[in-house]
Amino acid sequence: MIDNNASVLLIYTGGTIGMIKNNNTGLLEAFDFAYLKDNMPEFALLKFKIDCIQFEPPIDSSDMDISGWKKIVRIIQDNYSRYDGFVALHGTDTMSYTASALSFMLENIDKPVILTGSQLPIGQLRTDGKENLITALEIAVDKTSDGRPVVPEVCVFFQNDLMRGNRTTKASAENFNAFKSYNYPVLAKAGVHIKYENHLIIHPRIRRMPRFHYTLDPNVLILKIFPGISPDMVKAILNIPNLKGVVLETYGVGNAPTNFNWFGQAVKDAVERGIVIVNVTQCIAGTVEMERYQAGKMLLDAGVVSGYNSTTEAAVTKLMFLLGQGMTGEQVKEHLRCSLVGEIDV
Predict the structure, then answer these.
(1) What is the CATH number of domain 7-212?
(2) How far separated are the first and last CA of the chain, in Å rounded?
(3) 168, 114 Cβ separation under 8 angstroms
């Protein structure tokens, strides 16, 4: 039920949805989002209140980083009591990273935080931005019959699908259905009506207030194995000064080469130095089962932690978050084995 008395805060960070073509250069540039209504007369049909805060200057999503995530969290925290929901407009390239990070940084929220964007600028004739934005705004103020938000978690809405943010990955650079949630069903489908899968949606723990986190540790990296990977390169990467965490992208159900003794030894040495290594699959769907084959058991024996069916985006931001909380290596590993906000199935 759309609450026409509700209010939503629109946070424009940048991205294609808010771009306009510079006729002199031919390039797409960000425009002042105060002029959004000039490009979207459909706004007049929405009865609920919409306010807007814009990044100054707006940034390309390729430039999104930890400071940008903190800025979004600060905007939400400072305005949390004033709005029923929040919609963040974001470039598509790093949207899944941001959605994953926010899912950890916004702990126990009881209001929707919906990220959306578009593949074409909102001012172009065939833009997908208008439908994405309007539906995201409606979801942000949608409430149950007893007045509670329908979707009180961090989500991505794109091309008719509402997805848990930390389950998404960008799957296409040009199709309008750019995002997929391969290992978790969509939370809602938007057609003539928005049909929610209520049993799949996370709800906050009662008697606990929302918490807003700002400390993330950037000393993590992603290491993707491939046939012919160089021993010198792996050893150099795992010996980077101040390295604390590694997301290891492996084959299949979590396998790594066993015919190279140096690889298992390099991983084991890194773990013994206190580096937390979490194993995720390179496959677009499926889960890590290191005990299934010797090629995975080697990593398990070396002290690598299973990432289960986590996306790479969720694994790397979860590592940043946990390491930023001042936990010991063992505490980080224990939390990696748990689902904090629905990011994995254990």
Answers:
(1) 3.40.50.1170
(2) 33
(3) no
Single pTM value for the model: 0.94
Owner of token pair 């069916």: 309
Count Cβ atoms within 10 A of the Cβ of residue 23 and give its class: 0-12 exposed, 13-18 middle, 19 or more buried: exposed
Q: Is 16 a catalytic residue?
A: yes
Is domain 220-336 given the CATH code 3.40.50.40 in the classification?
yes
C-alpha angle 158-155-19 in degrees, rounded to nearest 5: 50
Q: Where are the alpha helices (DSSP H) in 118-173?
A: 129-140
Residue 7 region by backbone torsions, left for phi larger than 0, else alpha for psi between -120 and 50, else beta: beta
- DSSP-derived secondary structure for 300-342: HHTTPEE-TT--HHHHHHHHHHHHHTT--HHHHHHHHTS-SSS
**CATH topology agreement for domains 7-212 and 220-336:** yes
Q: How far is 48 from 185, CA to CA, in rounded Å?
A: 29
Domain map (residue ranges) of the chain? 7-212, 220-336
Mind listing the pLDDT tens digit of every residue in the chain (346 residues)?
A: 787 889 999 999 987 777 666 666 766 666 666 656 666 777 778 889 999 999 988 888 999 999 999 999 999 999 999 999 999 999 999 999 999 999 999 999 999 999 998 888 776 667 777 788 999 999 999 999 889 999 999 999 999 999 999 999 999 988 888 899 999 999 999 998 999 999 999 988 777 899 999 999 999 999 999 999 999 999 999 999 999 999 999 999 999 988 778 999 999 999 999 999 999 999 999 999 999 988 889 999 999 999 999 999 999 999 999 999 999 999 999 999 999 999 999 8
**Which residue out of 13, 16, 92, 317 is catalytically annotated?**
16
SS3 164: strand
